[in-house]
Design goal:
108 residues; mainly alpha; 5 helices; 0% strand; elongated
Amino acid sequence: MTRRYVYLALFIIGTTFPLAAFIPWVIDHGLDISRMVEELFVNRISAFFGIDVIVSTIVLWVFINWEGKRVGVPLWPAIIASLTIGVSSALPLFLFLRESRIQPTTRL
């Protein structure tokens, strides 16, 4: 199994699992951003996870910017994935695109 397949599988997992939790919440509450933030920071342990994800997203954006420009990978797909789904989707997507650029002769 090539790295591209692994990254693609991780992208699918990193997209579907978070959405499986988020979509029912949206169905119940709508896109109520203030309620989402309130529930995210309802206690210290959930705040820990929320802050960790926010910092991880910023780190990912820096990595995507530097590595994407160096290798010639478009930045926008992973940035959009990070804003709409999260790091669990954006990182494997970027790595999949990067691997496709680094080894273009490898078949998917």
